[in-house]
């Protein structure tokens, strides 16, 4: 492979990445916005499940508006970021909003699963908490904000040759792996062989 063909292939890959990200951005923006609009404006669409789906669409809009433009820019400039106070703030907000979106989506899916469980197993005894969808949505977002708030403290634009906003770190692994190792592994009971 000659250097010129490698450069041409790299440019082609970048433009393909930008095109795909642009198409996903448009579909995600229009689909999630339409979902939210329908649930908010059509009273007959305000079932518990549909309200939870709209809540997840709001979380997905956070992902669309924060991560997708960053993904498109990442194909061209990598982790390079702009410096100063504004660079520091946007680096923190970018990583926080991506993590917030993921956390809110996961918690919403958990509540949808619980709602469906109670609807199938206890069709006449649905918990009154799940019926109060505004309270459930508020709890989802508060828990999501609390669980992802360390991102606002940790991430920062690093002033190296080019200013960098790192996309992964040992801190994230620390938040995930340490609790799993601490609480996920149990000591064998007496009489059981250790593995």
Helix content: over 70%
Beta-strand segment tally: 2
The secondary-structure class comes to: mainly alpha
The outline comes out as: elongated
- What is the tally of helical segments? 7
| Major sheet description | 2 strands, antiparallel
Poorly predicted ranges: none
Radius of gyration: 22 Å
Strand content: under 5%
Query: Could you spell the SSE succession in H and E letters?
Result: HHHHHHEEH
Order of adjacent strands in the largest pleated sheet: 1-2
Mean pLDDT: 77
Distance between the termini: 50 Å
Protein name: G-protein coupled receptors family 1 profile domain-containing protein
Organism: Desmophyllum pertusum
Pfam families: 7tm_1 (PF00001)
Family: Belongs to the G-protein coupled receptor 1 family.
Can you tell me about this structure?
The protein is an all-alpha fold and 195 residues long. Helix content is 75%, strand content 2%. Strands 1-2 form a two-stranded antiparallel sheet. Helix 1 packs antiparallel against helix 2, helix 2 packs antiparallel against helix 3 and helix 3 (84-121) packs across helix 5. It is a multi-pass membrane protein. Belongs to the G-protein coupled receptor 1 family. It is found in: Membrane. This is G-protein coupled receptors family 1 profile domain-containing protein. Residues 31-195 form the G-protein coupled receptors family 1 profile domain.
